[in-house]
Amino acid sequence: MTTTPPIASPIASASPTTARLDPGRPVVPGAGTLRPLGVGDVTIVDGFWGARQELNRTIIDHIEHWQEREGWLANFDLAAAGTLPAGRRGREFSDSEPYKLLEAMAWELGRRPDAALAARFDAIVARIAAAQDPDGYLSTRWGRPGQGARWSDLEWGHELYCMGHLMQAAVARARTGHPKDLLVTVAGRAADLICATFGPAGDQRICGHAEIELGLAELGRALGEPRYIEQAALFVERHGQGTLADIEWGRSYYQDDVPVRAATVFRGHAVRANYLAASAVDVGVEQRDADLVDAVTRQYDRTIAARTYLTGGQGSRHQDEGFGEDYQLPPDRAYSETCAAVGSQMVSWRLLLAHGSPRFADNLERTLYNVVATSPAPDGHGFYYANTLHRRVPGAAADPNTASKRADSSLRAPWFDVSCCPPNVARTLASLGAYVATVDDDGVQVHQYVAGEIRAELPDGSPVVLEFGTDYPAEGRIRIRVARAPKHNWTLTMRVPGWCVGGATVTVDRPDGRIEQRAAEPGLVVVDHLRPGAEVILDLDVTPRFVVADERVDAVRGCVAVQRGPEVWCLESVDLPGDASVADFRVDPGVAPRMADGRVVVRGRLRTRADGGDAAWPYAAPAVMRDGEEIDVPLVAYHDWANRGPSTMRVWLPVG
Ligand code: FUB
Ligand code: ZN
User: Fold this and answer.
1) Residue 608 host element (H or E)
2) Which of 428, 446, 427 is nearest to 437 (CA)?
3) What is the pLDDT of residues 134-170, one digit of tens each?
4) Whose CA is closest to atom 3 on ligand 1?
C-alpha cells in the first residue's frame, strides 16, 4: 500500500482504448491514463447523490413541463408545419434546451429503463426530427423565409451551439444502447452538413458560443466518424483568429482573441471558455496532440488558482457572465453560473482521464457539492442560475408561474427566460455515475465517494465488483467491500481529497483475517492483492476547518470561511438572534468550528455601532463599535442555503 504522486501525461504515447459495448460513458477518449466507466456500470443508492438522482426524475419532469409551457418544444412543431417565424417563442438558443433535456433523459434511461420516460423521449425526438431540413440543417430560429439567413449571425445566433447540444444528446442515446436511434440519425445529418459547410475549404468562422466542438468530437468518437473529430479540431484551432466581430467586451468574450494553444488562462464568458477548453482536450487526446492538452492544462491550473471561487464556481462579472481578472472574486458579485460549473466539470473530467492526477477530481468534487448540488431546490421545482456567495438583503420568492430574469432571482426560481442551467443540472445528475470511477491496466480508481456499487471490467476482461457503504460527506468513513475480483493481482486506487489536511487512514480487512492499517496523505492511495470478501475502509478527516483566501482576493481579506469535507458552509441570518443580519456577525477564529446536532457551529459576536445607527456618510474615522455577548451560531451547508426561506447569507465571515 503506497501513496503515489500525480501521474505524468501519457497522451502522445498512449494506445487506443479497448472497445467494448458502451455502458453509457459521456466521454470516451481514444487515449489517456484512465478509462471511464458508464452510467450502467455504477449504481448510486441513497446518500447525498442517490437522493439527488431520485430528485432528478422530478427535475426532468419539471423541465419538460416548462419547455412545453414556454413554447420551446412547440417551436419545432411550427418549423415542421412551415409556419415559422410566426409564433416562435424563446431566445435564439432555446432549441438547445430540449436537446439538453433529451440528453438528461437518455442518460436517465441508460441508468434505469422506464417505458413511460422512453415514450416521452421518443415523442420529443419525433417532433425535432420533423423540423429538420432535407440537407440536415436544424434550427427553429434561422434559415426560413422571414428569418435571418443561415449562418448570418455567428456571433450571437447560436446555430452551431444548438446543434452541438443536439449531438451531445445523440451521443447519450447512442452510448446507452441505441446507436441507430432517430436522434442519432438527426444529429449525424446535422454533423454532415456542418462538415460540408465549415470544412477546410469552407466557411472559416466559428460559433460565438463554443459547444459544437464538444458535440462533434464526441459524436465522432461514438459513431467512429473521424470527419467529425477533424471538424471539431478545425473549430478549436480557428478560435483566436478574429473571425468574429469585435464586440463591447472584446473578442475574449467568445475566446476569439488568442489561439487556444497560446492562451494562458480561461477568460471571457465562463461557459463558453469551459466548453471550448473541454473540446480542446477531446481534440488533443484524439489527435495525440500533447501540446494542445498541455496548453489547456496550464490554463486550467491557473484558472483554478486565481479565477475560481471557494465553491468551485467561476465567473465574477455579471455584465458578460465572464471571468474577472486574476483574484477578482468578490463574493457578493459572484456570478458563478451553474452552467459554468458544469462546463468546468467537463474540463476537469477530461483532464483527469488524460493525466490521472487527483487534483482534477478534487475540483470536480468541489464543484459538484457546492454548485451543482446548490442549484436545484429540494423539491426539484426551482433552480439557481447565478450562485452568489453573499446575499446582503433577504431574497424574494420567485413567482411560480413566471419565468424569472436569469440572474435576478434572489431565491431559486422555477424557470428563467434564459434557462440553460436547469437542464445542465439534469444531464449532470443523470450521468453522475459515470464520473465516480475509472479503470486502467492495473485496476480500478475511485474518484468520488458514493453509496452503491461499481461494476468494472479490467482491460483483460476480468470483472471487479465493489460495494460502497458510506454516508459521505456527512461522515468521512467509506467502506468498500470487494464482491468480485480477478485471481491475478490488481490495484484499488482511492483519492484522498486535497481538503483532507487532517489526514486519512486506510484499513484493509482481508478474508484470511489479516488486518492492515496505514495513514495516507492527500493524493492517491493504492491497495493491492484484494480478493473477494476483502473490505477496505477509508477514513477521511472531515473535521470542520477555517480557510482563508490568498491575500490578493482583496474582497475577502480579513474573513474566514468554513469547510467540512468537500462542503462549504455559510451563515444565514435565520440562524442569528433577533433580526440580526449576517453583516453584524464577527467570527472568533481562535475557536475552531465544531459539530453540534449535525451542523457546523462557530463562535463569535454580533457587532453594532455604539451610536446605534447608520452614519450619513460611510467613510470617516473608525466608528466606535460595540461587541455583544459571545454566541455560538450554527452554519448551513452552502448547497442548502435559502431552503428555509429568505435570509441574508454569507460564506466569508469577517473575523472579530
Ligand atoms: O448563450 C447560451 C447560454 O445562455 C450561455 O451558456 C449562458 O451563459 C446563457 O447566457
Ligand atoms: Zn446556465
Assistant:
1) strand 599-609
2) 446
3) 999 999 999 999 999 999 999 999 999 999 999 999 9
4) 420
User: DSSP H helical segments within 114-211, as ranges?
Assistant: 115-130, 159-174, 182-198
CB-based contact 583:648 (threshold 8 Å): yes
579-595, pLDDT tens digit by residue?
999 999 999 999 999 99
Provide the 3-class DSSP secondary structure of residue 276.
Answer: helix
Contact in structure between 91 and 148 (CB atoms under 8 Å): no
* Spatial contact of 623 and 611, defined as CB atoms under 8 Å apart: yes
Rounded-to-integer distance, Cα 281 and Cα 305, Å: 19
C-alpha cell recorded at residue 113: 429503463
Supply 527's cell numbers: 491497495
- CA distances for 68 relative to 73, 78, 123, 350, angstroms: 5, 13, 13, 33
Instruction: Please report the atom of ligand 1 found closest to the CA of residue 321.
Output: 8
Instruction: From the CA of 421, give the closest atom in ligand 1.
Output: 7
CB 330 within 8 A of CB 555: yes
* Ligand located closest to 274 CA: 1
From CA 158, how far away is CA 323, in angstroms rounded? Answer: 21
Expressed in angstroms and rounded, the spacing between residue 84 Cα and the centre of ligand 2 is: 26
What does 219-266 look like in DSSP terms, one character per residue? HHHHHT-HHHHHHHHHHHHHTTS--SPP-TT-GGGGT-SS-TTT--S-
Strand pairing class (443-446; 491-496): parallel
Contact partners, residue 647, CB within 8 Å, separation at least 6: 391, 394, 395, 572, 573, 574, 641
SS (H, E, C) 373-430: CCCECCCCCCECCCCCCEECCCCCCCCCCCCECCCCCCCCECCECCCCHHHHHHHHHH
Q: Residue 406: what pLDDT?
A: 82
Q: pLDDT per residue over 208-238, tens digit each?
A: 999 999 999 999 999 999 999 999 999 999 9
How far, in Å, from the CA of 328 to the mean position of ligand 2? 21
3-state secondary structure of 631: strand
**Quick one: pLDDT at residue 409?**
65
Cβ(418) – ligand 1 distance below 6 Å: yes
pTM, two decimals, is 0.96
Find out whether the beta carbon of 92 lies less than 6 Å from any atom of ligand 1.
Answer: no
User: For residues 73 and 573, what is the distance between their CA atoms, to the nearest angstrom?
Assistant: 41
Contact call for residues 604 and 585 (beta carbons, < 8 A): yes
CA nearest ligand 1 atom 6, residue: 271
Locate 616 and state its grid cell: 450619513
